[in-house]
Specification:
The protein is built from 12 helices and no strands. It is mostly helical and about 270 residues long. Helix 9 packs antiparallel against helix 10. It is elongated and about 80 Å long.
């Protein structure tokens, strides 16, 4: 490559670098800005898309049919940049401000998903999981006929398992240290607050093991929990192992560990 060719290439690179980027302020027509911003979004140019749709949410009239779409795509842009908190808030804003819009139920679902992405594992602070739960419940309450109902139910069930897991894991940590009284407090909370989760079954099995341990040796308490377990999970191997020798004398189950809350039988 000659010196002249190299200089030409460098000049072209420099010119490309100096070329102005996406400038939302240069658009005087909101329709044109919307189309241009959507094009940037579809090309995954997230920064440009966010800049464009953010300007549209400020400039469009509250009666403009493009405004809820601008909020929707702005939230999508934030999602593309992994700004899940901003995305969740933008989706929520759409649902709150345009409750009658066709995107309102979708926005609540996406808001829930965005919050869920911020709760990365059960052991972390469940704040964002709780916020996600609120969004899904709002969706089911406000839009009972939404096609997203089944998906929202599934997400709520998954969150319930995570909430239950958080309490179960704390109880299990006490259990492993033989601090059985403390472990039972958490296991009871799992059974009371999340009765339809699999963790409720596991928590009751752990309660039986704690009551039957040489440290506690609370046979009657163990028998009561086993009565509930035999009713709810009559063929479960873990139940049969934990409750061996404590098979029910009749079909009447007693509340687990003298608790007033007996878990409902999980849906198949």
């Amino acid at each position: 490559m000659t010196l002249r060719t190299r200089l030409s290439v460098l000049l072209l690179v420099a010119l490309a670098a100096c070329k102005p980027g996406f400038l939302p302020n240069k658009f005087t027509n909101t329709d044109a800005l919307f189309r241009a911003s959507l094009d940037r979004l579809q090309k995954k140019k997230w920064d440009d898309a966010v800049a464009g749709f953010e300007k549209l949410t400020l400039d469009l009239s509250s009666r403009d049919s493009l405004l809820p779409r601008a909020h929707w795509y702005l939230a999508k842009g934030h999602t593309g940049r992994y700004e899940h908190l901003l995305a969740a808030q933008e989706f929520s804003k759409l649902a709150e401000s345009f409750a009658d819009d066709s995107l309102a139920d979708d926005a609540l679902f996406e808001s829930g998903r965005s919050y869920s992405r911020l709760w990365r594992r059960p052991g972390l602070d469940p704040q964002y999981g709780q916020l996600a739960q609120v969004q899904y419940r709002l969706l089911l309450t406000l839009y009972p006929d939404s096609p997203l109902k089944k998906d929202a139910d599934a997400e709520l069930k998954r969150l319930e398992e995570w909430f239950a897991t958080k309490d179960y894991d704390t109880g299990d940590a006490y259990f492993r240290r033989k601090a059985y009284d403390s472990s039972i407090i958490y296991f009871r909370d799992v059974v009371k607050n999340y009765p339809n989760t699999d963790r409720a079954r596991q928590a009751m099995i752990r309660m039986v093991e704690a009551y039957r341990s040489p440290v506690m040796n609370y046979k009657e308490d163990a028998r009561e929990v086993c009565a509930t377990l035999h009713t709810l999970y009559p063929t479960d191997p873990g139940v049969l192992k934990a409750c061996v020798g404590m098979e029910p004398k009749d079909s009447t189950a007693t509340p687990a560990g003298n608790s007033s809350a007996v878990p409902a039988k999980p849906a198949p």
